Amino acid sequence: MTRISISNSTTRRLHSRRKPHCITFTMRFLPALLALCVSLCSPALRAADDFLPNVKRIVFLGDSITHGGGYVEDFELYLFARHPQRKFEVIDIGLSSETVSGLSEEGHADGKFPRPDLHERLDRALPKTKPDLVFACYGMNDGIYLPLDESRFAKFREGMEWLHGKATAAGAQIVHLTPPTFHKLDARPTPGPDGKQPASLLGGYNLVLDRYAQWLLDQRAKGWRVIDIHGPMNAFIDAQRKTNPDFVFAKDGVHPNAEGHALIADALITGLAPADADWWKKFQADLAKNPKGAELQKLVHQHVHLLGDAWLSDIGHQRPGVSPGLPLPEAEAKAAEVEAKIRALISKLPPQ
To answer: Which listed residue, of 51, 72, 90, 327, carries a Cα 20 to 30 Å from 83's Cα?
Structure first.
């Protein structure tokens, strides 16, 4: 048998010819292999992408309850903790006293100024902030604390339809939140002639908000995304007053305390991601026991208000008495520093 001898130089040439084909094959299919690896090995990443897809910038519109920011802060903390790999931007531009109906009661603020109207600033707010998603929480001020009246109710409906159309035309998704509960103690219904307590221990102006909230919920049939805040707050307060008749989230019946804001945030998160409700509850319980919990919440509060106040000033409004924010570039730089601290703290929390 004749043996064929291949020199070392020939071998090197053969290998050098093969090598580019191997590299070409590998490079051509590397992205697909990586994608397959991610899809098989990282369901958490897939879940993160499924949550609010194509959303980065989130803008909150509303009145003083939104401007106070408690529930917005809780929601931002949820985003940081549950979706740390996503880069959401939360901008709270709620404005105290504001309505979407354009109404103002006579002598508002002791006659110093009428209620600000969202119509005055929305056409500046949307182009400036360029949101991917808008949360809108109106209604508390829109009935101007008077009994139900069809003309006022119509103004609320018209304002909400206008807002919905404007946000959609700007290319943003919009989620409406039903108004929180009005629960001033002197508005409680009294027992009937038989001495029995009424079915609900809420009354007065909250009956107006019941109607406003139900109208918003009815818009789901038209394809609107509506998360119910009003119903859960009603149910919680009613349940508390069965054993503690003087229970309130707010002495004025309007501006909820931290527990009230937490309930709003719970309803918001559950409305967006029902499967996360238990996770969020556990996260909050664990955070309350963590020595760094208070520091983390303080940082989130600072972050939300740095950006929100700056954007509110940059957009402009007609509400006197609102403290101006920093110039936007300065606020964004400071907020980036605070965000880095938030992410560092969250990275050190025990896995959930």
So the answer is: 327
